[in-house]
Amino acid sequence: MHRLKSILHLRNKIVIKIGTNLLADKVKGINLDRINEIARSVARLNAMGNNIAIVSSGAIGAGVAALRLKERPKTIPEKQATAAIGQPLLMEAYEDAFRKQDCTIAQVLLTKDDFANRARYLNAKNTFPVLFEQGVVPIINENDTVAVEEIKLGDNDNLSALVANLIEADLLIILSDIDGLFSDDPTKNNKAQLIPVVEKISSQIEKLAKSSKTELSTGGMITKIQAAKRCVSAGIAMIIANGKNPNILEEIFSGTFKGTLFLPAENKLNMRKKWIGFVSSAKGYVCIDEGAKLALLTKQKSLLPSGIVEVHGEFKANETISILDLNNKVIAKGVTGYSSTDLVKIKGKKTSEIEKILNRKSHDEVIHRDNLVLIGEPSC
Ligand code: GLU
Fold first, then answer.
1. Mean of the pLDDT values across residues 56-85?
2. pLDDT digit string (tens) for 262-311?
3. Is any ligand 1 atom within 6 A of the Cβ of residue 58?
4. Which of 38, 68, 69, 377 has most Cβ atoms within 10 angstroms of its Cβ?
5. From the CA of 79, how far away is ligand 1's center (Å)?
6. DSSP character at residue 373
């Protein structure tokens, strides 16, 4: 695992995601031994000058045990109530474990909107450096109690990748109850091999995730690969490793661990493009013709009104939208200079006609190149 050595420095910003399967049992409740092990390792890494943020699942799991439910609740209000009961129990366990290590923790609960809205995103972004300066370990979860389906991220793998982007981490470590990504489903094929390093998330790697059914938690391998895509294209490395091993964090830092390392892309996107491509959610979409598609994909051009064939959804100027080709394939995302109402009027028209049609012209292009991210580039 010498490849990790070139990624980790003396002081690193690291996000560690811990899955429900490692933390909560529906009968026994929160696994205090595991939380104590994690607190011990994290406090040690923190004392070495690293900044560590934990994304912890387990609120619903802890709530299920506290209410003595037979299974995880299915309806949204039940899940919300169960999370409201479990989240403080989870935090109490972290608080106790970290107090023993002389380490202060902070609770941060986030929703999808905190990432999708750029002002809220920047506000959240400003909080973390202050916590890190004080040596505090933020413990993050989705705010399940207020997050109904439409505003829900839904899984903590993707949440942890968004947090890694938010704090501009060097590394995201996803601790699960499996060793990493395998060449085949290890429960069915005993010849399945652990893949130690993924240099590029190819369609073949994505297929492996789809066939994997080794986990009982919310996301399984599919959401882990989604998280890896969000990380590597932003220049952040990601590891999937088995959190049942009490020494896993030490082994990762000494480069002797068993797991899968996803290498970060070399040509990473700048901060704004990262937000557009991997954080903000699209409020609508436009379909473009072949000529415009070619201009975007091969000539690094901006999107002009003349290439737009259809406009879907209601969105304002300065909101993120998706760009689809005529086969309905998403090829890019970008921040539009014009609202959906304006675009319906100027679609298919020449730039020189915008002013006459709208009685004003804010921009020549609908989406400027600087506000546009191609899907599939630079590395996913
Ligand atoms: N936020 C959920 C919880 O704390 C977990 C979601 C997940 O497991 O990905 O229970």
1. 90
2. 998 876 677 778 788 877 889 999 999 999 999 998 888 999 999 999 99
3. yes
4. 38
5. 10
6. E
Cα(18) to ligand 1 centroid in Å equals 10
Which tens digits make up the pLDDT trace of 178-220?
899 998 888 788 888 999 999 999 888 888 887 554 443 455 7
The whole-number pLDDT of residue 212 equals: 57
Statement: residue 338 has pLDDT above 70: yes
The runs of H, that is alpha helices, within the chain are: 2-5, 20-23, 32-47, 59-66, 76-100, 112-116, 118-133, 156-166, 203-211, 220-232, 248-254, 271-274, 290-299, 340-346, 354-358
Distance CA 145, CA 2 (A): 42
How far apart CA 24 and CA 372 sit, in angstroms, is 41
Three-state DSSP at 173 gives: strand
Most confident listed range (180-194, 233-247, 263-277, 359-373): 233-247
Contact criterion met (CB below 8 Å) for 49 and 10: yes
Domains of the chain in sequence order: 2-273 (3.40.1160.10), 282-374 (2.30.130.10)
Neighbours of 281 (CB within 10 A): 15
Q: How many CB atoms lie within 10 A of CB 77?
A: 9
Is the pLDDT confidence value at 80 over 50?
Answer: yes
Per the CB < 8 A criterion, the answer to whether 259 and 239 are in contact is yes
DSSP characters over 258-315: -EEEEPPPSSPPPHHHHIIIIIS--S-EEEE-HHHHHHHHHH-PPBPGGGEEEEES--
Could you tell me if 284 and 311 are in contact, meaning their C-beta atoms sit under 8 angstroms apart?
yes
Q: What percent of the chain has pLDDT over 90?
A: 61
Q: Please give the distance, rounded to the nearest whole angstrom, from the Cα atom of residue 53 to the centre of ligand 1.
A: 16
Q: Please state the atom number of ligand 1 nearest to the C-alpha of residue 144.
A: 1
Q: Tell me the C-alpha distance between 130 and 126, whole Å.
A: 7
- Dump the DSSP string for 79-105: HHHHHHHHHHHHHHHHHHHHHHTT--E
> Ligand 1: which atom is nearest the Cα of residue 155?
9
The answer to whether 91 and 30 are in contact (CB under 8 A) is no
